[in-house]
Amino acid sequence: MAKKHNITEETHQSTVAGQTLQEAMEIVGKNHKKHGDTVASFTMIAELWTVYVNHVSVVNTTVNLDPSDVAQMMAMLKIARSVYGTGKDNFVDGAGYIGLASMLDNLEE
Description:
mainly alpha, 79% helix, 0% strand
């Protein structure tokens, strides 16, 4: 049987989730200055990863990653790190990468 949550627990959970997303928004804004143009950077990463994936692929198809794929793969990296590591930063960074993936995906339409 599922445990019933009271209002205080739900409020706390919402607060933690909101704080994580707020931190992610702040980091994305701050790191833009540090890492340069997001679209250009993720486009280059996608091109480099595409070459790599094509060389190691055992399937005879072409793989063309796009900038949104890069952001989603970086989020997966953060998910994997959260399984084996500790710290809130994996969740904050993962949320940031998902936000960037959404932004980049909308640019491609």
